[in-house]
Amino acid sequence: MAQPTPANTRLYRHGKLVSEGFPIADVSDHLGEDDAVIWFDLCTPSEEELATISEELGLHELAIRSVLTPNQRPKLDMFDSHMFLNVFTAHYDGDTGRLDLTEASAFITSNALVTVRTSDRFDLQEITSRWDSSSGLAEHGVAFLLHGVLDYVVDTHFEVVQAMDEQIETLEDRLFGEEIPDRAEQRRTFELRQSLVTFRRAVSPMRDIVNALFRRNDVIRDSSITPYFQDVYDHVLRAAEWTDSLRDLVGNIREAHMTMESNRMNLIMKRVTSWAAIIAVPTAITGFYGQNVPYPGSQQMWGFWTSTAIWAIAALVLYWQFRIRDWL
């Protein structure tokens, strides 16, 4: 008989991890314990499951509604008994240029953190490993757990912006090469700019979220865990500013592509016009000699050679003038 899969749960007491993997149904037994801090995770929960959790933790109906409504913007809502956090992790495929955003939420009470995921791409193993690597901060309770979640989210943002930066550097190198950017490369530039616009919607609000935690949460503001949240805030600012600069840079690359295409068309038109001017000289002379009226040298060999020499010399002079002006 297959063993049931352990639940994503943890119990900390007096700053120490004392239990994990216990059924979510046992969470209510620990909520009233002194110095007990609980974390558990829900992946795509039903409305009934959220209603049960709401009764246990006293969650606000607006927070529950936000979880049930997909594609919320990143935000931090403050209620009397808890906070509601909504964020997006990001993953970028450099080969395909595809940006994937994974939405996740969290209910934050004085002694419990409940994460709600919409997909397994929100990597809980990465978060728990961060908690384990900084277990000395567990005495800070829910603030310690919340820091691990935010740190993971912001790190995914950093990984994406770094990957996009590398893509843009490649586009810049090709931009100033000898080859004119082809249609596929121009499409890739446009798709990258779209990804940056979408990514910015997930990154920019994080500044307000972390800043609100400092301003309105005394547990974080007045404890030794403050520098760790300050570090997260610094990373948020860098990621947001980096994203804005990359978006402007991609726009400049797009404009450079259009300018290069325009210059290329002007060069083609200049060359065609130059050759047309060269051809116009012998055309004018031979047309003149084709008149059915007598003219100097008419029906004489010297007249033929004179006209030939005139248009040949004129054509050569024009060709030389166009070459020194870089028109040909």
From TrEMBL:
InterPro entries: CorA_cytoplasmic_dom, CorA_TM1_TM2, MgTranspt_CorA/ZnTranspt_ZntB. GO terms for molecular function: cobalt ion binding; cobalt ion transmembrane transporter activity; magnesium ion binding; magnesium ion transmembrane transporter activity. It comes from the Bacteria. The chain crosses the membrane at residues 272-290, 302-322. Its main location: membrane. It is a multi-pass membrane protein. Keywords: Cell membrane, Membrane, Transmembrane, Transmembrane helix, Transport. It is found in: Cell membrane. GO terms for cellular component: plasma membrane. Belongs to the CorA metal ion transporter (MIT) (TC 1.A.35) family. This is Magnesium transporter CorA. It comes from Acrocarpospora pleiomorpha.
